[in-house]
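Researcher: Quick test of sequence recovery. Tokens follow.
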């Protein structure tokens, strides 16, 4: 009897050790293969079986053993792992990997991002879109002439009025598209989809200032026009002082004399000719503020939030003039004499940028 008890005890100990060993081995197989937090990119194609998923994970060194992975998902009754493109941390382990695959992927390998910088104009917008999508430059500009499309935008957005249908405007939505970085599903994105995203963002930005805009003596179109001038004329640190110069001039019916507007009126990029001489400032058009008394007919660039805010909230100054040197420093003056003295000084010092 004693011998039988010893045998039984020995068998129990053996099987206990085996069971513990199996459990330890099983749990070890579920641990991460790699300890780093590097990201492993992979694709689970549509209709991939559990065995196929295990093979893909093994190939990418995310699991230790395919059979153990299959045993785990069977024991846990996992049946809803989704196809898609995944970025999986290398140190995830089987449990976390399965959770990621059950949640599904939102990653789109065809997704594109397009950045539109503050101060660009519609011509640059069309170039950027045509370079990053399957829309042609000419088709983009043609869309902006579509009367039915423009009317849809007027009916949809509170900040867009009939002004954008003025046939004297060079480009109907100049100044209305908010410059930022945007993400789209693929290069197949339409120009309408891009414009919608940019107008939606402009609407969010302008909503913050809607009360001030309604109290202003200027329309939204005029505010965006002024903001677009400020955007082209200086740096962020100078925006509110530049705005004060323009506001002060408007208050006394003094021409704004914005070189940026004169260049735009001729279809040129600002400083394309290197100097705002008579070739640039003399021609009469609806944008040249050397020849106009007041704001141009519409915006000359895509203004950002800072210049929209500056247009609404200028500094309180007596400045009527400003100029910049070739070190990108801006100087402000009350009188034309002060302006001329600084111009002569900068020329003598070799800092005159023209």
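Model:
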């Amino acid at each position: 009897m004693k011998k039988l008890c010893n045998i039984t005890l020995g068998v129990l100990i053996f099987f206990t050790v085996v069971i513990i060993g199996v459990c330890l081995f099983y749990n070890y197989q579920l641990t991460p293969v790699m300890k780093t937090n590097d990201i492993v990119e992979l694709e689970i194609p549509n209709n991939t079986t559990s065995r196929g998923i295990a093979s893909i994970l093994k190939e990418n060194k995310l699991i230790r053993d395919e059979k153990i992975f299959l045993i785990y998902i069977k024991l846990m009754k996992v049946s809803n792992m989704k196809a898609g493109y995944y970025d999986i941390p290398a140190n995830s382990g089987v449990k976390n990997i399965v959770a990621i695959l059950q949640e599904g992927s939102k990653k789109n390998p065809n997704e594109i991002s397009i950045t539109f910088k503050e101060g660009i104009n519609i011509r640059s917008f069309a170039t950027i879109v045509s370079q990053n999508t399957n829309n042609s430059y000419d088709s983009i500009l043609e869309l902006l002439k579509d009367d039915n499309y423009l009317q849809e935008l007027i009916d949809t957005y509170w900040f867009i009025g009939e002004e954008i249908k003025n046939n004297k405007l060079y480009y109907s939505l100049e100044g209305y598209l908010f410059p930022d970085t945007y993400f789209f599903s693929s290069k197949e994105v339409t120009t309408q989809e891009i414009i919608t995203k940019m107008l939606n963002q402009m609407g969010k930005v302008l909503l913050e200032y809607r009360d001030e805009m309604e109290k202003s003596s200027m329309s939204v179109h005029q505010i965006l026009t002024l903001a677009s001038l400020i955007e082209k004329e200086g740096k962020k640190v100078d925006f509110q002082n530049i705005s004060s110069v323009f506001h002060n001039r408007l208050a006394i019916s003094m021409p704004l004399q914005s070189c940026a507007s004169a260049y735009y009126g001729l279809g040129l990029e600002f400083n394309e000719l290197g100097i705002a001489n008579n070739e640039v400032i003399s021609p009469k058009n609806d944008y040249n503020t050397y020849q106009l008394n007041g704001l141009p007919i519409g915006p000359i660039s895509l203004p950002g939030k800072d210049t929209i805010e500056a247009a609404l909230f200028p500094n309180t100054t007596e400045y009527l003039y400003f100029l910049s040197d070739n070190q990108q420093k801006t100087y402000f003056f009350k009188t034309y004499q002060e302006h001329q003295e600084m111009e002569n000084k900068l020329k003598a010092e070799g800092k005159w940028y023209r």
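Residues 115-319 form one domain.
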